[in-house]
Amino acid sequence: MLTYAYSNIEATFALFTQSALGFGPTDNGWLFVVMGFVAAATQAFGTRWLANHVDEPRRVALGLVLLAGGAALLPSASSLVELLGPVTLMAIGFATSTPSLTAWVSRRSPPDRQGELIGLGQSAGALARVAGPGVGGLLFDHVSHGAPFRIAAVVLGGAAALALWARRP
To answer: Rounded distance, CA 105 to CA 103, Å?
Structure first.
């Protein structure tokens, strides 16, 4: 669900900023650079602290909620300044949820099946990377320019709820 929603966002982000804000490839490139730096800083400084204070399911849920919040807010941005908040939330959310999800799968898997289950997750992620851009593009073209982000926010919110539900022993 995370990979589907994020690939949906990635595939339509530049289309949205071009249509809503008039951004070109260079502008979008700089936004992706900012997102990369924010994500790297989050993983370098925030993820370690969170790992020592918050269990994996809650970290996954936190990351998904932040990512969902950014995705939900993104379609209302009408300037670069208004876009920076959602972009920052999405970068922090993705950087928090992704390593936490992998760690959670690893810890919850029987030792003799860890590789198999992590590989299954990677396979599901590969399928999601196909579905996300395709569905996102259709939503962008046929529903509205904000639809891919709103749908991603709903999917991510549902995934956060599932993460908290699955936290039970």
So the answer is: 6
